[in-house]
Amino acid sequence: MVGEGAAGGSTRTLRAQGALRAIAADRASTERLRRTLEQALVFAGAAFAALYAPSADGELLYLAESAGVPRTLCGVRDSYPVAGRAPVAEAHRGRPVWLGPEDLAAQAQSRRVPSRAFFLAALPVRGGGCLLAVSERAHGFDADDRVCLGLVADAVAFPEPPAATDGADLPHGGFSLAMDTGRVRVDENILELFGLDPDDFDGRVETLLGLTVPEDLPSLMSVVEADHMTIGDRELEFRVLQPTGPPKWLRLSGRLVPGGEGRPARLVGTVADASTLRSDITDVARVQRLAAALATAVTVRDVGKAVVAALRRPLRADRIALAELEGDRLVVTVLDPPEPDAWPALWRAEWRTEWPDAPVRTMPTLAAALREGRARIWPAGSSLEETLADVGPGGLAMLPLPAGNRMAGACLIGWDTPHDFGADERALLTAAAGLAGQALMRARAFDAEHELVGMLQRQLLPRRLPRLPGAVAVARYLPSTAGLELGGDWYDVIPLPDNHVALVIGDVQGHSAGAATLMGQMRTALRAYAVEGHPPDVVVSHANRLLMDMETDLFATCCYVDIDMEEGFAWCVRAGHLPPVLRHPDGRTEIAEAEGGPPLGVIRQSDFPMSPLRLQPGTMVALTTDGLVESPDIDIDEGMDRFARQLAAADPAHLEPVADALLGKAPRSDDVALLLVRYDGMAARPLRESWTVWRVPQAVGHARRFTRRTLRSWGVSENVDAALLVVSELVTNALVHTDGQVRLDLTLVNGRLRLAVADASPRTPVKPTSIGWEATGGRGILLVEAVSAAWGTLPVSGGKQVWAEFVLRH
């Protein structure tokens, strides 16, 4: 085990040495120091790494550069006194410091140190100063980590220390902004660019900001506000208003420099005229077209398509990827071109979907660019990790997509052949990134809220459809994309006794939480009335009266179809809703001529007539709401005719693809509910017989003789005595404990014998928990349960049905 660990550590050390040598050899890189620090994150597992350098007066150690998480999360300062006892100062004096959580907790009383479970390392650097690294891992820095940190400490080099005072002459086009007061010293050339007379300038940064184009002000404020800055370079193009003509483009390049103890941080840099670097107004036109496209982009996918359309052709790019930033993961939502072969093999092989979805930490270069929040460009031959290098071997641009104080995502643009990045392209990328970030956040919020709306709507609909005897049913619900409010469309499939099935589809007026709530109530009410055994017209009439009693301002429409699966016959009741569309086995379609009544909740005393429908095996019944057949461009009659034609061309053998195809043509301006049922007919027709039990002394005997004769005629010879016992008990209970008519029903299908006794009382028989030896009754239900395979009760219109089943051997 020791040998394996040593071998692994040696391999990691060699990789770190190779990476540091490659960075040192890149003399043209302006990011060499940051890239060197990033190797501490990659090879030593650090969460934060920083280089502290001595100030010009030798009294302070200031934060020269950093990489990793924001320094505030690690509790470190931007400067420390050289003579102090901080780990940074100890390392500057030549002594390496390794501290664990207990050591840091002990020092927390006297000075500011990380308060969470951090491990801290401070290593001296040649020439003074130190390398500071912080780890969040449970074991801290192991031996191999310490070796790699030593390599990084040997590789870092200092920039020139900042001046101790702010009195040096400014360069041409230079400025120095005090971050605490907003006072700014500027070169006269900057005042000329802004159109200000030096005698009229009051030294306030707000005066300069007031002359910028309002649309560019948010991005400019993100640069000049200290809360949104980290140590490092900043670059931004913006526009200033002119007395006449179009706004002038300026370019700001700056760096935030910590002031140290007693002195404010300063933003120093230059402002130059960028108008001459821009080719012509076509870039502005492209940005305007992108802004117009993003203004109408609703979903995240729409935003990605708009960005691709605006950038790929003007930039002559070979590939563009747009990714959302979800926590610490990048999830690619748009790839152009979409073919997998156009993208690196590592993307397809190592990530868990056909499109990338990977932690940001696996790409340190990309993670660093996201932290900085500005566009980064790597020309051909740049040293990049494999996951990025193959995206743009001829050049790679990465656009962080900012949205307020956070990053919404990133856009990667790659070229296969060496690409020369002009100033006009850089300006186009910067402007596109800001627009796309805001649009992405809006689209993400819309997608999330729309998904929530759809989820709530689906919770009010049946979770799954029941299996039907002699039929197959599929249903779909599609929320509208026109808004975020809940809709009132619903559907239901209700199994009923005697192989009947009720199909229901409906729509509550409006789109609101009230409409959705009412929809759930109406669906529940219709199901309850149907299960009670009422005929279709009574079910709909009861629902109408219930809605009237609820005293709501909303109304509802519905179509209710009761199908007898044994006979292939159906009754249809419409309450202000679209009629069913029938597709016959020969492919003909017809819109059923079903007489209709008014919508539910409009007139209390309404008639809802029943219309007969004849179904041959293979007939498809289609019920839908108006969202599928009506739109501002299509009349509802024309939409129903088109719906019927689409059904005629469909394959009824596979209902799932048919439903998907029909919804694929939905206008999406309204909610859509769709219910398709293919009636196949029952393979085995039940044998049925009924007997009305008269209330006479010999009633039970008559019922037993009727049962014996029926079973003999059906050829049933087994379980006859048990069946007669059940008939005796159920008929006796009905005669003794209820009033009104009593009916005995016998059914035989697929080797199951069903005995059912219906009476006029809704009270369900109760099985006793215990019976004393002296009791003279109460054993009937216990006997039924003992001799039958199953038993239960069902509500019927105004009463109940108690049933028992026997399984017969074939």
Automatic annotation (TrEMBL):
Protein's UniProt keywords contain Kinase: yes
Catalytically driven reaction(s): O-phospho-L-seryl-[protein] + H2O = L-seryl-[protein] + phosphate
Stretches assigned to the PAC domain: 234-286
Stored InterPro entries: Bact_Sigma-Reg, GAF, GAF-like_dom_sf, HATPase_C_sf, HATPase_dom, PAS, PAS-assoc_C, PAS-like_dom_sf
E.C. designation(s): 3.1.3.16
Pfam family, one: SpoIIE
Group of enzyme by EC: hydrolase
MF-aspect GO terms: ATP binding; kinase activity; metal ion binding; protein serine/threonine phosphatase activity
Keyword entries, A-Z: ATP-binding, Hydrolase, Kinase, Magnesium, Manganese, Metal-binding, Nucleotide-binding, Phosphoprotein, Protein phosphatase, Transferase
Known function: Primarily acts as an independent SigF regulator that is sensitive to the osmosensory signal, mediating the cross talk of PknD with the SigF regulon. Possesses both phosphatase and kinase activities. The kinase domain functions as a classic anti-sigma factor-like kinase to phosphorylate the anti-anti-sigma factor domain at the canonical regulatory site, and the phosphatase domain antagonizes this activity.
Protein name: protein-serine/threonine phosphatase
Organism from which the protein derives: Streptomyces calvus
